[in-house]
Amino acid sequence: MAMNFAFMEGKYNGSTITILGRNTMFSTVREMPVIDSSGLFRFARGYVQARTHRFDPGSGDAVVEYNCYVLHY
Fold it and tell me: Would you indicate the residue range of the signal peptide (predicted)?
């Protein structure tokens, strides 16, 4: 899975964090690395933990919580 978190307001407006990794939907907690960043997060390192709270196999809709842990300079 590849995902970009883009900040639209406040101190981090215009900054992004990019995540890339295997997202196994049926695992309780998944961990994916931060692979790139921009703006105030330039040279950031970190990871994301994803937890699925609800998943509907018929529609493919899901409610997923993402906790992002980032170290930046």
Answer: none
Say what the pTM is: 0.81
53: containing domain: 2-71
State pLDDT tens for residues 26-70.
888 999 999 999 999 999 999 999 999 998 989 989 899 999 999
DSSP string, the chain: -EEEEE--SGGGTT-EEEEES---TTSSSEEEEEEEEEGGGTT-EEEEEEEEEEE-TTT--EEEEEEEEEE--
- Look up residue 41 and give its DSSP letter: G
d(CA 47, CA 56): 26
